């Protein structure tokens, strides 16, 4: 057991409320009927599987999209959290699901790291799924306890090189975005640091604010409040451009670490063999949802933005996944990390 | 008089019609999911988050907070009535609460839980209002070394008291710790005791263990024969606590409130220890130690108060620092962000109406919970009259549904069956499930913090002694151990986790 209520999930009461929400929100609801498989879709509830816990960033993004996508599809979408083993339990479940478009997976960067981390995955990301499209990419920030000596990114780089045996680098557990970003940082700087894994971002950030560990790399979603309040020291953001919510924070490239580029990208998947016209309907719905002003506003509050329309396509998604699989296979093998 | 101004601002916000209404909706939903075994507040909050997008931020947070502490409140009901705890804190309540129910005293047990929770909630609200920022600063001084020493102290206090069958209690704690190690090791990623089952990578869920060891095992025992059946009770003695009961619960409620309020502030697992510690303390100082485990009302009032106080003060790190103490708090952070409020230390100064309104609403929520729950006691107690042929299948059904809904994982349901059988065998051997549960909850915390402290100190074990808070906690632990070992005291044999012999 890890934490007592970590894997809390749906309640009958809450499911009832959720269907009520769905019923209220899509006024034009009710499934279309008649016609062949593709044109009748959807004539039953669509399940969006989130392979992480309810309330996490991936879950939040999924629930944001579920409403506008359901409206566009003229159907209902139920979000289900199937957690475990770094998202591989939920992904495996979708890989084995009926390829009819009623089981959809929302997964993040972990889709591209799992083959390198897990010896016996039970599915192949490129071969067992159809890609629907990319969704968003959440930037990451490099932050430290507020009395950590280095003042800038350049100083941080030379400091960790000089004190490699002393510095501690926190992360939110094996395979977490903060762990991956930490690996890239060590690669880019060319040092090996003592990593301190935590059970999720909350406890890691708590110990960073409390000064128990030296520094970490985490999503803006988690860090921007602490950065603006001055409770942690921020060095850089890991995206090509600065983020709007933290305009004073330079990018890694500006600070001379152009090979440290990472974002937590999200994409939608369906099982291999799903009819192309169904995938196309899902892609269309995704594009409409990503252009929805409410979605844009909500994502902005998370420090993120929807991907450009030409990225919310199966082709762009596949290209991204291929590129990321290759990148992480090398980084993870070099670091000698294994999750089991 | 700044505090009074702040409280006035808070209450003027919290008493707005829509805020009182959604506070009520929150505690009502919370009570409902708390009562259903295995069903918890995290998913409820997650699912209701989207409908709060259109609310005022303070209204949204008032409702979500209400679900959380309402669920802490409701969880004791099922634990007392049918021995099905859905949270680690409720497992402690089940010990004496269910024993009371079997004696026809479910009413007083439920009332003691409700009254204790209300008093604890009220005091904790005052603590939040008066001392939130300084307490948060103290909480930040707790690093891995301090948490290790704190959990060790918690375990020792409990072991030290479990003298009657110390060997069996120790064995059960050890077994519980071992069950707690199942799953992926967070430091190396190595899967431990998973037998190639990916479903076990995340570990065994607490709810499966608690529902199996307590609820299912209890049912199996009841099915043995007519004479030993105790789960259903024909005669209900009284609905309300007697004058004697009322006198007996005052001390435990106040001590439980103090303990819970203090431990709840610690984001790294302090709230888990609250009810266990309160139970151990009450048993330690009680003049009626032999009654504990056999229906001592102090064993219900103390832990329930501690639990509710901790639930309330665990908002301190969230509200003052923007740091979540557990998954529900992480969701609340999401709610802040969605409403355009950056969670963090600036919330108190930037959004005073929200901060003080939320605190004031917690007190209103506690009043609503008492008004909601006291009249329901009569109805709950009547539930015990349901014939066992109907009640037992229903309990199993609800337990299975609730556990399955944790993560839509059939494995969790198999786990109930496994732990039910194991619990039955252990009862037959004269071993008690409670120490096992304690080991299961605290073992992983102990290991995680021990290893993290040593990683940060680069293997230097003196870190536990050179850090003042950690060293003080270890000194207290040693004292507790010495007291337990002293022969003069050991004559007064006592058992902290004893239940009725099978």
TrEMBL record, chain A:
Give the range the annotation lists for the signal sequence: 1-22
Name of the protein in its database record: Tripartite-type tricarboxylate transporter receptor subunit TctC
Report the sequence similarity comment from the record.
Answer: Belongs to the UPF0065 (bug) family.
Q: Which InterPro entries match?
A: BUG, Bug_dom1
Keyword Signal carried by entry: yes
Q: Which Gene3D superfamilies match?
A: Bordetella uptake gene, domain 1 (3.40.190.150), Periplasmic binding protein-like II (3.40.190.10)
| Entry keyword annotation includes Signal | yes
**Organism listed in the record:** Asanoa iriomotensis
Q: What is the lineage of its organism?
A: Bacteria, Bacillati, Actinomycetota, Actinomycetes, Micromonosporales
UniProt entry keywords in alphabetical sequence: Signal
Q: Which PANTHER family match?
A: BLR1237 PROTEIN, TRICARBOXYLATE-BINDING PROTEIN
Automatic annotation (TrEMBL), chain B:
Q: Cross-referenced Pfam families, in alphabetical order?
A: TctA (PF01970)
Signal peptide range equals: none
* Name of protein: DUF112 domain-containing protein
TM regions (residue ranges) = 45-69, 109-132, 144-162, 169-188, 200-220, 315-341, 353-374, 386-407, 413-443, 464-489
Q: Which UniProt keywords apply?
A: Membrane, Transmembrane, Transmembrane helix
Domain DUF112, which positions?
21-438
Question: Which organism's genome codes for this protein?
Answer: Asanoa iriomotensis
Question: Is Transmembrane tagged as a keyword?
Answer: yes
